[in-house]
Write a structure and sequence with these properties.
mainly alpha; Ferritin; 7 helices; about 75% helix
């Protein structure tokens, strides 16, 4: 088995970051919106959908960073397998949201690199503390993301069936990730940490809706 040096590991993480942010994602599963006909949207509806799907794409960038940061210090194979499975599914979400933003004539956030780095550090710190804490971050993150996606289903026009199909599928899988983390032994995070995570999410969703 090959042992990687610290430099190798750093370069691998840098490559992961740039692949996530700048390279077209490979969609390993059928996009849930592929077989839905595009319905013309008003300019206002289209702008709103672009903003929401850009936010969702950045959220998936953050999820990739969080999981990869946690995987560096993961202690057990069981936790590693769960994190890797979730990470792979988030890769599909990343592809779906990026494609949808482009279909709507928009662009992904110019701040993705910043949010990736921030989330990676959070994941690495959680992983250093221990697997149960790391899983606690996963559980709380997925709870917040599921609520956020549910809010987008209320916010996006009913005419934008393609975006809604993607969001619904993502919401269902985020709930599955949260349940998996809970069953794997996640600890409930202190209220102050939950509040800080909510603040971080609020900043991200507000800023990336426009940028």
């Amino acid at each position: 088995m090959r042992h990687f040096s610290l430099i190798d590991k750093i370069l691998a993480q840098v490559d992961n970051a740039f692949t996530t942010i700048f390279t077209a994602s490979t969609d390993a599963r059928d996009n849930p919106a592929n077989h839905i006909a595009e319905i013309p949207l008003t300019p206002a509806e289209q702008r709103n959908s672009v903003g929401c799907m850009r936010v969702n794409h950045t959220g998936e960038v953050c999820a990739q960073a969080l999981y990869r940061g946690q995987l560096i210090f993961c202690r057990t194979q069981k936790t590693r397998a769960m994190l890797e499975k979730s990470c792979n599914e988030e890769t599909n979400h990343l592809a779906w949201t990026k494609v949808r933003v482009q279909e709507l004539g928009g662009r992904t956030s110019v701040l993705n690199l910043f949010f990736y780095g921030n989330s990676f550090l959070i994941g690495a710190l959680a992983g250093m503390i221990g697997d149960q804490w790391s899983l606690g971050f996963v559980e709380e993150t997925e709870i917040q993301v599921a609520k956020h996606l549910e809010n987008h289903l209320k916010k996006i026009s009913i005419h934008d069936e393609k975006s809604r199909a993607i969001i619904q599928k993502m919401r269902d899988e985020e709930i599955q990730h949260e349940q998996a983390a809970h069953k794997a032994g996640a600890v409930m995070l202190p209220v102050v940490i939950q509040s800080l995570m909510q603040l971080h999410a609020k900043v991200m969703t507000t800023v990336t809706y426009y940028f």
